[in-house]
Amino acid sequence: MPDETPEPSDAEAPAAGDAPAPAEAEPEPEPEPEPDPRHVELLARLDATLGDAVIEHADALGNLVVRIRNDAWGRFAEVAKSDLECDYLSFVSGIDWAPAPKEGGDDGGSDTSSPVQPTEMTFGAAGSGGRFQVFAHVQSTTKLWGLTVKVDVDEADPAVASWVSVYPGADWHERETWEMYGVRFDGHPSLRHLYLPAEFEGHPLRKDFPLLARVVKPWPGLVDVEAMPEEASASEPTSAEDATEEPAAVTEGGGA
Amino acid sequence: MSTTETPAGVPSFELDRNALRHLADAQINVELDTGDMILNLGPQHPATHGTLRLVVRLDGERVLAADPVIGYMHRGYEKLTEVRTYPQITTLINRIDWLSSFANEVPFINAAEKLMGIEAPPRATYIRTILTELSRISTFILFLGEMGLQVGALTPAFYGFRDREHVLNLIEGATGGRFHPNFNRIGGLKDDLPWGWVSETRSVMKMMLDSCDQFEDLVAGNEIFHARTKGIGVIPGDIGTAYGVSGSNIRASGVDWDLRRDGEPYLAYPDLDFKVWTHADGDSFARYWVRLQETRESVRMVLQLLDGLPSGPVMAKVPRIIKVPEGEAWVETENPLGQMGYYVVSKGATGPFRCKIRSASFSNVSILPWLLRGVYVPDVVTILASLYFILGDIDR
Lengths: 256, 396
Description:
The complex is a heterodimer of chains A (256) and B (396). Chain A is an alpha/beta fold and 256 residues long. In chain A, 18% of the residues lie in helices and 17% in strands.
């Protein structure tokens, strides 16, 4: 195993299946209380089969998230089904990490009550190499474990291998991801629209695709921008940051 | 083979399907020599439970290929969640699987609570569990009746609707809504149970057990029903899981997997004593039978929950403006139709940055092109009915 594979810090993972790996791995900084033994086992099996194709892994509130190299995506499905014993495919989908356009911003005309997301691009668990990611969740009905796997896809030409030959259920999920994010799945038998009409253009779940309903017709909530009388008086502070703001809680956003 | 016996004195009505199949083949191929025919089932068709369209290619009465066309009810919920706040989203997700709306709310609220590190008080957890199981009972009771309709028996459907109404009344009594309760809040529930609700629930649960017995006699014990469902639409366990088929459908294929028992512990299920029913056959009848047993099991669970219902508040302390810290959470629950999951990505705002909705019916129906190959047209209808899907749960 040529390996910069992150092993969940060797002190906590003594019996992780195969011997050679853990010693020379660079130290994982996070001092997690104690890793889930199922995660340790899954990572050990992944390490034995995929080696350095696993870029990063994280524990997202009890759910194991691994990020693998794009060229290992097709192989991952085979490994998941045989070596990880994950016989069950839960879903395949995508994420667009681009910052959300500011709804109800200066030019207005839209919903001021919608959440304001951060304006810089940040990535979630196990990181990302760019704007688009495909992620999937596979599970085992016998071992009762599961993991989420993410893969970076190129922004200009998003593409990744198809899982249909391993998990036939990936068919519809991949069609949906293709239609919603424009990610091509190489090897998919018939990549065509699933939900939307065949002549639909654009990829609706991309962050730069406007929510047309809000563009065509302003959000009705916008009409009542004034705070209700009892709302103005009931301005008891609820959490530390909110206490400083004006009482019109409806228009209060997250960022800025 | 099956777990129910033919009553004494009634001659066995098992058809030799293989023999019939050969007979039909011979007639179609040699005598009639039919060409292929494309038949559109739906999008508006009484047998499709909504706007599911099936394009089937037929050779005589046999289906050569089936292609489900979905999206007639696509409402873009995953996009809509990105412009709404967490409390607003429960209103949306009520309408995914509209027969068991309360059960839809639970995983999403759980995901938000998990990210915020909030735990609902024990009483709220118990009431949530009771209402989730009541949704399951109401969903399944309707199925137990409606499945009869799909094989040509009109009466059970009326019984299904009639008996379900008692459970809906309970849900309405507690939450104010028959179908869309919107009763969950992050950190607990909107209200406590009304006075007299617990004793009323006990008596309704007794009625539901009677109702199950009735369906067992009327439908599951009927020879014609057996002939139409046994050996029809067989899903082998390994193929089902690879397609992502979940819930009662996969348990009817012998896969002993129920997230209430096997998933991450959620709601009050760890406190309960219940049995997970499976059936080895994987056919339409097995799916009916498993749901029948699960309805009874849910009744038993509700009675246990009512006995152990703790006192106390139904709402934890939460900030007035819900802001969810940055992070990712995956929460899956065993809904009446199968595995329902939400993958919520938060960036610290009042609404999610991305919310992937994994709904059960979507994957359950995706097996249709495989499953319908080679079956007869009338069996298409019973197979569709036995998979038991909700269009809102497919299209989201």
